[in-house]
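Message: I would love a firmer grasp of how sequence relates to backbone shape in proteins. Thank you; the sequence and its tokens follow:
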Amino acid sequence: MNKQEETILNQFKVLQPNLNAWGSFVDRTLTTEILSKFSNENIVKILPSHRIKDEKSFLFKALYRKKPYKNPFIDIEDKIGTRIVVLKSVDIEKVAEQILNYPQMESQNHKKYSARN
């Protein structure tokens, strides 16, 4: 491992406790504030669960993809993600709409999924 890789990897390791805390907060908020609206509909199969990007994957994305990141810690937006599993694909849009319209969080939809595809 070269010096640049080691430096970036060490900085990412330092950031991980904060990412984990943020992921836990988002999971709780999604569960209590947003998904609770669907509790009577049996839409959600698995409640929100976050994961931090794998260190090797972050390092590869930061240095070796054909995107010149000036500051990978700011420019790379998928350092952490939360997954929600719904029972039916038609329910994805319902859940996404609730998340996107939740006023206390800023959110964006980066992928469009349609059950009709």
Summary: The helical segments are 3-34, 55-63, 72-75, 92-100. The beta strands are 44-52, 80-86.
